[in-house]
Amino acid sequence: MFSCHVWFLLSGLIGCTGNSTAAIWFSVPESHHVCLPCGSSGSSDVIWTRQDQEVLVTRRGGYKTNKDRRRYRLMVNGDLCVWHLKESDHGRYRCNQQLVAELQVLTGRDYTVSAGRTLLLPCSGSSKPKQRWFQQREGERREAVLTKYRNGTVKPERGGGRLSFTNDALQIQDLQPEDAGEYVCNGLLQARVTVLAAHAETSSQPPSTSTPPSPAVVTAEVGEIKKKSNTRPENVLLLVGAVSVGLMIIFLAAVCVLLTSMKCRRRKRRAAAAPTREDTELQPWTTSSAPTEGEDLETPPLCGETIHYASLGRQNWRERPSRSPPEQSHHSVIYSSVISRPAARAEHKL
């Protein structure tokens, strides 16, 4: 049964398409390329759009338009080849308003793809015309899956007809859980593939009008949640470490202040306990009358004269003129007496 689509381009471009085909759900690594079939027959007029808004290429007779000639190439049969894929190329592609493909752009080496999609794996890093592909499932031995010879002959070694060599890459149609694992081409690791549960939008069931979240987006969100959950313990450890260091610094500062105050108190106590010279200096006086104004103060005492001394704390035996002892209050007083001898006076006269 044929379906006619009427659409307008520039000055009333009209086209009719038939033989609608089921949409293909491609998953292709970035920087690679993929060719999307138009699915229209019997019409030379073609218009390709992405996400129902962006017009990529058009052809009406001999008139053509191309948004980016370096990346978009319109084939003679109406197919569209997209080169140097980027993440922004993700989305749904329509040819003459008919949905023909949904493109998922993969990044890195770890790919998470829903079951039922068509996966392309290019042999990157190897310039040999012959390509030898192996798959290694977790816990199993490496197994050969496909060989492409120099003359272009392709020999699938397993997969039940789902494996082929298309778009210059190993193509796995209707991806299944047993397709998960590591893929090696000519001894070089190309990808680690994880297959999710069967996707609601397969090649045999056209998608609904609402746009479901892409598996890549879902995987990214799950990865962000895991990343946040993994970083929480690290943040807690950092916080605990910072608090511990702060408490240690405060403790050390308190100990230093305490030691300094104790040292200052000890110094004050020693200074207060040490007697001064004025308090301990010997204070002599005699029982005789006080010397007159013209009397020699250094004249030794007469024979038999007794000289008394008073001191605080320690003795000072230096002889001084006799005088009345000063008032000593609030101190303990040590009294001493010295009796001069005649021999000492005679020697003084000589």
TrEMBL record:
<keyword id="KW-0808">Transferase</keyword>
<dbReference type="InterPro" id="IPR003599">
    <property type="entry name" value="Ig_sub"/>
</dbReference>
<keyword id="KW-0812">Transmembrane</keyword>
<dbReference type="Pfam" id="PF07686">
    <property type="entry name" value="V-set"/>
</dbReference>
<feature type="transmembrane region" description="Helical">
    <location>
        <begin position="236"/>
        <end position="260"/>
    </location>
</feature>
<keyword id="KW-1133">Transmembrane helix</keyword>
<keyword id="KW-0418">Kinase</keyword>
<protein>
    <submittedName>
        <fullName>Inactive tyrosine-protein kinase 7 isoform X1</fullName>
    </submittedName>
</protein>
<dbReference type="InterPro" id="IPR003598">
    <property type="entry name" value="Ig_sub2"/>
</dbReference>
<keyword id="KW-0472">Membrane</keyword>
<feature type="domain" description="Ig-like">
    <location>
        <begin position="101"/>
        <end position="185"/>
    </location>
</feature>
<dbReference type="InterPro" id="IPR007110">
    <property type="entry name" value="Ig-like_dom"/>
</dbReference>
<dbReference type="InterPro" id="IPR013783">
    <property type="entry name" value="Ig-like_fold"/>
</dbReference>
<dbReference type="InterPro" id="IPR013106">
    <property type="entry name" value="Ig_V-set"/>
</dbReference>
<feature type="region of interest" description="Disordered">
    <location>
        <begin position="268"/>
        <end position="334"/>
    </location>
</feature>
<feature type="domain" description="Ig-like">
    <location>
        <begin position="35"/>
        <end position="95"/>
    </location>
</feature>
<dbReference type="InterPro" id="IPR036179">
    <property type="entry name" value="Ig-like_dom_sf"/>
</dbReference>
<keyword id="KW-0732">Signal</keyword>
<feature type="signal peptide">
    <location>
        <begin position="1"/>
        <end position="18"/>
    </location>
</feature>
